[in-house]
User: Fold this.
Amino acid sequence: MAASGRLPSVAREVLSYGVIGVLSASTDAIIFWSLTTRFALDPQLANAAGVVCGITLSFWLNRAFTFRVRDRALARFATFWAVGLGGLALSALILQTGLSLGLPAMRVKLVSILIVASVQFALNRTITFRRGPDRS
Assistant:
């Protein structure tokens, strides 16, 4: 911790992103589980639905609480979605690979969430929520 008793900025961002990520990933996973088990929806379609809901929730919460930016909301939302869609593609690839190996869909989904979340944090921190040179 910093001398002021507060977490350094990056540590606070990682912690906040993690908490919001758990909430968003839980939303994603619950939607995936519900659609595949309760409604017998194809796992890839259920994956897309869960990811879309998770991305949208994650953007608004991270914008407000993690990165605390208010400017360029539409541009940031579009960039966040681009990163999110890249994450969806990666998630779909991981899911398809796991399913083709005969692994349980939910286990593969959970592993994909961990991998995709790490990649997305790095991209969102450095691109989506980057602050201009005159901002701290």
